[in-house]
Amino acid sequence: MSILIDGRKTSGIIKDELRDQVMDLKKQGIEPTLAVVLVGEDPASQVYVKHKKKACEYVGVRSLSYELPAETTEEELLELIATLNGRDDVHGILVQLPLPKQINEEKVLLAIDPIKDVDGFHPISVGNLSIGRDGFVSCTPAGIIELLKRYDIPIQGQNCVVIGRSNIVGKPVSMLLLRESGTVTICHSKTRDLPGVCKKADILVVAIGRPNFVTKDFVKEGATIIDVGMNRLENGKLCGDVAYDECAEIAGAITPVPRGVGPMTIAMLMKNCVEAASKSLS
Ligand SMILES: Nc1nc2c(c(=O)[nH]1)N[C@@H](CN(C=O)c1ccc(C(=O)N[C@@H](CCC(=O)O)C(=O)O)cc1)CN2
């Protein structure tokens, strides 16, 4: 039976570590502050934003909440971001995704000052990651690497297969695995013999957005499986991209859904906020 990689427990440990760092920053006169922007009433986004604000409270980060109506225009949102960019007391800016249709996501992400880009979505942050420079790394991919490290799962020289090539997860996690000297293969809808490619993986990261897509036929004995999927089924239950029970019998270690990668996303957001505030000291 495999090891369960517990994201909820690990995120709790990280948040406790950050709490101490925030206390130190406060002693030096810095109050880490995150602006949280939510446009519209998407129920999932509302839940995630609530969790983020709760995490801020726990860690000691001040959160400023901007909950805007669904009909907010792109101009109005860009204006708010410009104001937040200009405020010295705001260290991080987070715009919850997805945005309503009338707003161009790319334009909005580009408007956030890269030094406040705690989500790591700005093209400059993405570029820094791909050329190995310091910068904010997006939270879910950073959380995946943190989980692997904290569970002593080696990356160097390992065959790492990533299913999914999104800008938010697939591409950045591939860059991070490469930075850790993994041998990385990125798979997508046009990949031939997907089960065969995945079966060679020592580390398999699945971010495809299809419930129970990865079955035991994709998994090498002893492999580590990271499930990034977050699919809400008709019965209201949350389900990952990996058929957990059958894959857990073969894997060496596996993340569950919920309580796997999800909570790590929020812990890494807190980590980025603390880092942004620390940088304001220098
Ligand atoms: N601006 C951003 N928008 C979005 C991001 C992001 O990183 N930045 N990622 C996702 C959503 N997301 C954070 O925003 C997120 C998703 C899931 C979880 C989480 O903890 N999930 C729980 C289950 C929660 C539930 O029951 O619904 C778990 O897996 O245990 C945290 C954050 C898209 N948008």
Please, what is the oligomeric state? single chain
Bound small-molecule species: the ligand Nc1nc2c(c(=O)[nH]1)N[C@@H](CN(C=O)c1ccc(C(=O)N[C@@H](CCC(=O)O)C(=O)O)cc1)CN2
CATH superfamily of the largest domain: NAD(P)-binding Rossmann-like Domain
The number of strands is: 11
Strand order of the largest sheet: 1-11-8-7-5-6
Please identify, by name, the CATH architecture of the largest domain: 3-Layer(aba) Sandwich
- The overall pLDDT average reads 97
Domain Tetrahydrofolate dehydrogenase/cyclohydrolase catalytic: 5-119
Pathway: One-carbon metabolism; tetrahydrofolate interconversion
EC number: 1.5.1.5, 3.5.4.9
Keywords: Amino-acid biosynthesis, Histidine biosynthesis, Hydrolase, Methionine biosynthesis, Multifunctional enzyme, NADP, One-carbon metabolism, Oxidoreductase, Purine biosynthesis
Structural account:
This protein has 282 residues and is of the alpha/beta class. The protein has 2 domains: 29-115, Rossmann fold (3-Layer(aba) Sandwich); 139-262, Rossmann fold. The chain is 41% helix and 16% strand. The protein has 10 helices and 11 strands. The protein has helices at 7-27, 43-59, 74-86, 105-111, 123-130, 139-150, 170-179, 194-198, 244-248, 261-279; strands at residues 3-4, 33-39, 62-68, 92-95, 159-163, 183-187, 203-206, 224-227, 231-232, 238-239, 253-254. Ligand LMY7XDAE is lined by residues 47-48, 51, 94-97, 119, 139-140, 230, 238, 257-260, 262-263, 265-266.
